Amino acid sequence: MLMITQDVKGKRYEALIDTLLEHCTHFAFMEDRRRMEIEEERLAYLDVLTEEIRWDLMERTIVSEWETTRLSGDTAYLYSFHMNYRTAQFLKEHGGSLFRWIHPELPEDLMFYSGDTCVLAVCSHESFFVVDEALWRQVQ
């Protein structure tokens, strides 16, 4: 995996999402519970945000670690969605860049999977992502 600190924006972001659509089975993002003022209101906001892809939701679980982060004693919601044309469009319309996925406007830390293997994981608030080298060569 390569570690990259430069954001992917605009047309490059859209091209990356198209490549991920070809190679990935699902994607996920996080909502850190420490950043929720009123948890029920934030979860309701996320339900509205993801309304158009609600049928693609695989699961929402509570976790304390994910690809780029390990919390000490705290938890976050992990939302996992099937990767398909509808969810790719959602990512394009709401994102615009990898690092734009950050609280409070959007959930954080996009992750993309091919089966059980993570091929791209973003740490939005730290402004870096890790990506499978072969996949990254395809979008360069």
Characterization of this structure:
There is one protein chain. With 140 residues, the chain is of the alpha+beta class. Helix content is 30%, strand content 33%. Strands 1-9-8-7-2-6-3 form a seven-stranded antiparallel beta sheet. A two-stranded antiparallel sheet has the order 4-5. Helix 1 (10-23) runs antiparallel to helix 3 (85-94). The longest helix is centred in the N-terminal third of the chain and has 14 residues, at 10-23. It is globular, with a radius of gyration of 14 Å. The two termini are 15 Å apart. The model has no long low-confidence stretch (mean pLDDT 94).
Mean pLDDT, rounded to whole units? 94
Strand content: 25-35%
**Biggest sheet, spatial arrangement of strands:** 1-9-8-7-2-6-3
Helix coverage percent: 25-40%
- The N- and C-terminal alpha carbons lie at a distance of 15 Å
Low-confidence stretches: none
Q: Structural class, from secondary structure content?
A: alpha+beta
SSE pattern: EHEHEEEEHEEEH
**Shape, please?**
globular
Give me the number of helical elements: 4
Question: Main sheet?
Answer: 7 strands, antiparallel
Strand count: 9
Radius of gyration: 14 Å
Please supply descriptive tags for the structure shown above.
140 residues, alpha+beta, 7-stranded antiparallel beta sheet, two-stranded antiparallel ribbon, 9 strands, 30% helix, globular
Topology:
Elements: E1 2-4, H1 10-23, E2 26-32, H2 39-49, E3 57-63, E4 65-66, E5 69-70, E6 76-82, H3 85-94, E7 108-114, E8 117-123, E9 128-131, H4 133-139
Antiparallel strand pairs: 1-9, 2-6, 2-7, 3-6, 4-5, 7-8, 8-9
Helix pairs in contact: 1-3
